[in-house]
Amino acid sequence: MKTTYLFSTSMYSTFCLSVFHVKDSGHLSIRTSNSTSTHHTAFLLTGVPGLEDFQIWISIPFSFMYLLAVIGNGLVMAVVAWDRNLHEPMYLFLAMLALNDVLLSTVIVPRMLLIFWQGPFLSTFPACLTQMFFVHALFLSESAVLLAMAFDRYVAICVPLRYATLLMGSFISKVGLALVARSVAVVTPGVLLILRLHFCRSNIIHHTYCENMGIAKLACNSYALNSIYGLTAALLTTGLDFVLITLSYWLILRTVFQLPSKEARTKAFGTCGAHICVILIFYTLAFFSFFTHRFGNHVPSHVLILLANLYLLVPPTMNPIVYGVKTKEIRMRVLGLCSQAK
């Protein structure tokens, strides 16, 4: 049975008609009439290419991970807000990370699950750009929060006498404003570069969410500037964050190994252990997905799409688990909050 989707688009007083056909096999093909510069009013997100018949099963682990992310991070935020003893920089940054994780997973997972359950999802052009903006902005803010947490540990271990002076309440609020401002400043030009493109061919995006290069590659005119800006922005933000975090922990480890007491060294490692685990999970998945997309020419497309989802969903799922296991204060407060709820 065939279903027809009709999109009318216009730009510079021209238009083109795109007719989509869903074949019996479940794959999508497109026939587009000849036209000049146009701009699609909608994009069709198809999910994971080549795995359409298995998407209902793929949705099960993704649903479970999303529930864990929302519940786990929600508990972390509730515990930090509820217990005034945890209103310290380390735990306030942790609450920021939990809030960012809930927002990031919520931006991508509900729509992804709709695609897995109901088939291709029709997203308007403004809605697609909005999702793209928040996906990239929240990813950048996650990296910035991890950098702030590394700085917090550096000051606490390497220059503890200045900790109370440097990391006051006003500093935490300034960090929060700075990471939001940085994300907006970096991602907005990427959105504006998308707006300059003309789309007159396919408006099918073989993905579960709208992202920068996924949209740009559908353009009729050159998207080289989009690619260059995206790569440069990634290196100067996430890449630089990683370098600074690595430098912070090199200085921390050097200081820890110089401590005279074994008990002090153990305590310092325990304080940093959870953060190191979270950093490894986040950046390992992010860099692996990033380089695989750009240099893994022989990697199947369904593997690339699954990686693009996992590097955004695994950290929000694992972060509250890691902090719950590694951080005694969080673990005890969560247990106390759950016992009060009973």
From TrEMBL:
A GO cellular component entry from the record: plasma membrane
Location of the G-protein coupled receptors family 1 profile domain: 72-323
GO molecular function: G protein-coupled receptor activity; olfactory receptor activity
PROSITE patterns recorded: G_PROTEIN_RECEP_F1_1, G_PROTEIN_RECEP_F1_2
Location(s), subcellular: Cell membrane; Membrane
InterPro entries for this protein: GPCR_Rhodpsn, GPCR_Rhodpsn_7TM, Olfact_rcpt, OR51/52/56-like
A Pfam match: 7tm_4
Topology in membrane: Multi-pass membrane protein
KW NAD (keyword) present: no
UniProt entry keywords in alphabetical sequence: Cell membrane, G-protein coupled receptor, Membrane, Olfaction, Receptor, Sensory transduction, Transducer, Transmembrane, Transmembrane helix
Sequence intervals crossing the membrane: 54-80, 92-117, 129-151, 163-185, 228-252, 272-291, 303-325
SUPFAM superfamilies per record: Family A G protein-coupled receptor-like
Recorded family membership: Belongs to the G-protein coupled receptor 1 family.
Annotated function: Putative odorant or sperm cell receptor.
PANTHER family named in the record: OLFACTORY RECEPTOR, OLFACTORY RECEPTOR 56B1-RELATED
Protein name: Olfactory receptor
Naturally occurring in which organism (per UniProt): Ursus maritimus
